[in-house]
Amino acid sequence: MKDIRDASIGVFDSGVGGLTVVKEIMHQIPNEKVIYFGDTARVPYGSKSKETITRFSRQIVRFLKAQDVKAIVVACNTASAFALEDISKESDIPMIGVVKPGAKTAVEATKNHKVGVIGTSGTISSETYTTYIKELDPRVEVIGKACPLFVPLVEEGLWEDPVTNEIARRYLASLIDSGIDTLILGCTHYPLIRKTVQKIMGDQVTLVNPAYETARELKALLERENLLSDKEPGLGTNIHHFYVSDGEERFQTFANSILKYGILSAKVINIEEY
């Protein structure tokens, strides 16, 4: 009989941003195996409706369950905001998103009760971060700012580029004026331009990276459910598997620039079949 603790963690995102979460999982819980799905054919999610994102998320969950995963991380802020509640009710395996861990850390970090959130148009309009933060501390004022151009800039590899600097300055100007002391990077792509954002916001503003917090939350969940793997992977074994809905070569190049160990291959699957 197979030990459920030996099963993989399913992680999914609209594209490549969720690899920042995978990186943290590899670092914080190195015994865990990951099966990652990036919906590269249908990215971005940030401009799509709740119904569409929920439909996409259901298909991906069905695919990950077919791989016998023991838990699922919705490593996409938009899908966490719009679909997580519905898909987790329909699932018999534990599932977490990236919004709650980030919100919790921001509430703990703020001194002046002013928290900023940057994210896709979908994440900001959903006001999910605001809802969670207000539940934790009603005194906190939440100022959201949609930054839709950050995702394509990150996906083009323009992490430290004059174009990214200029767009970031324009996006972040109103947040600087608002006097926030804490800023949530409310999209898993954004940690890749963290340096640029920090430079513009200044050192007095604490940046919250939900990718880091989500990996911590995942570890706690696995411990709680007695699902934590106690087996160290053998040297040279390919324990992580990556799937995309389009453009595997581009994805592979991008993944190898983010993940310390690199990836050997990414496989294209037709997600519409699920």
Description of the structure:
It is a single chain. The chain has 274 residues and is an alpha/beta fold. The protein has two domains: 4-97 and 212-273, Rossmann fold, CATH 3.40.50; 99-210, Rossmann fold (3-Layer(aba) Sandwich), CATH 3.40.50.1860. Helix content is 45%, strand content 16%. It contains twelve helices and ten strands. The protein has a six-stranded parallel sheet with strand order 4-3-1-2-9-10, sandwiched between helices. It has a four-stranded parallel sheet with strand order 6-5-7-8, with helices on both faces. α5 crosses α11.
Summarize the entry for a quick read:
With 274 residues, this protein is of the alpha/beta class. It has two domains: 4-97 and 212-273, Rossmann fold, CATH 3.40.50.1860; 99-210, Rossmann fold, CATH 3.40.50.
Order of helices and strands: EHEHEHHEHEHHEHHEHEHEHE
Percent of sequence in beta strands: 15-25%
- Dominant shape: globular
Count of DSSP strands: 10
- Fraction of residues in helix: 40-55%
Number of helices: 12
- State the end-to-end CA separation: 27 Å
- The number of distinct structural domains comes to 2
**Name of the level-1 CATH class of the largest domain:** Alpha Beta
How many strands, what sense, and barrel or not for the largest sheet? 6 strands, parallel
Strand order of the largest sheet: 4-3-1-2-9-10
Rg for CA atoms: 18 Å
Label the structural class: alpha/beta
CATH architectural category of the largest domain: 3-Layer(aba) Sandwich
The third-level CATH topology of the largest domain is Rossmann fold
Rounded mean pLDDT is 93
Low-confidence stretches: none
